[in-house]
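cron nightly-structures :: item 1 of 1
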Amino acid sequence: MCGIIGIVGSPEYSVASDIYDGLLVLQHRGQDAAGIVTFDEHNLYHRRANGYVRDIFKQRHMKSLQGSVGIGHVRYPTAGSSSVAEAQPFYTNTPFGVSLAHNGNLNNTEEILDSLLEYDHRRINTSSDSEALLNLLAAEIQRSLNGRPGGIGMLNSEDIFRAIERTHMRAEGSYSVVSCITGWGIVAFRDPNGIRPLCMGTRNVNGFTEYAFASESAALMTLGFELERDVSPGEAVIVRRDGQFSAKQCHPEPQHRPCIFEHVYFARPDSVIDGVSVHSARLRMGSSLARKIMKIKPEHNIDAVIPVPDSGCIAALELARELEVPYREGFVKNRYIGRTFIMPGQSVRKDSVRKKLNTIESEFTGKTVLIVDDSIVRGNTSKRIVEMARKAGAKKVFFASAAPPIIHPNVYGIDMPAKNEYVAHNRSNLEICEAIGADWMIYQDLDDLVEACLGAGENNIATFDCSCFDGVYVTGGVTEEYLNRIEKSRNDNAKKSAPA
């Protein structure tokens, strides 16, 4: 999972500071690396490195990032390594100078690399699927020109639309993309299933309509852009440096099937994704979970509902309201520790849980508490939290997950590739409960989760990608052989031996 942003500003305006501020809003989507690329009429400027946004970009870097057009990226590694060479945006000289920032994961990277070498005579420098996607797009732009002479002034929007049509034909998987062509403009596009989010907004500056694209609407709203809409699955949107706007559906059969885990965990609650408020979806998750508890354990005797901050808070609040049980914040979060889910390596995650949360003993002592989290993946965080609750004096510890059991790999940009690392893998509900040390536990039903995330139906979502829950993959190329291959390359043991 990554965060991307792109801005076309008025000609006299430098976009670097706004891209920086937007990346700060998207920092929760990736804490491994960050980068910004900007350009003016003639030159390209860039800065990318490992680390947090605030640490990478100093004043001297911001001054050097000139120009009224640019893109930015925060990285959370799923494929490839965590080396600085794989920080985005990526860049290639030919044709015209193309930069790209990608959120998602390609499922046919090896096939793309082979075809790039054989047919397009391109070889990439890293193991990143995002660099493969960049070179695929660049090769198709070159092919769209069809040998026409002339410089970048000859490039038109139809050339780009044709290139993206062919990119859709060759790429499988999830990809939301912002790409800039130096001196020309920005291209934003989304895979035919719309798995990863991408929205767009506008603002008026001295009569010039500025455009911005981002993974989440919260980034646009923070910068003063008005949310216009989401980029549709399979659609390409072009904004030229002079503000000219054009858009086209570039896939013959798009199907809107976004990743449901955005609403469960990744997205900020103040974002609206594909027309659905993340905050409202999480409230509905809590409501449906409360109804399930009342159905199967009406005499629950719960004294307090306590969330795991932050992504468990909203569901817990509504759950407590419907159960008519006090909502209490019994865990204090150290907000200077990153999100443990997206930290590579089991030992790092375990150590971070100890440093990230502390208890308020008075909220636990002598009580039967229901701890609510957004989901349970490996179970180590949940086990540690249950231990902390008992140590704080809880009489009984119940545990609720706002999502169903995770039992299948996620291959669309979330680092959950190794099913044998999931606590729910080949375990019953009782065995999971014993594994995390709780007295009782409950999971959300998948149908209820889907209903919660669809909202009132005022959107164009056909259904969701729920592959980590039900094993149904919405794209081609996800075979058992593929799943076994990525599990071997991306499990925790593989990460320990990966180059830094």
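cron nightly-structures :: done
The first strand starts at residue 3 and ends at 8.
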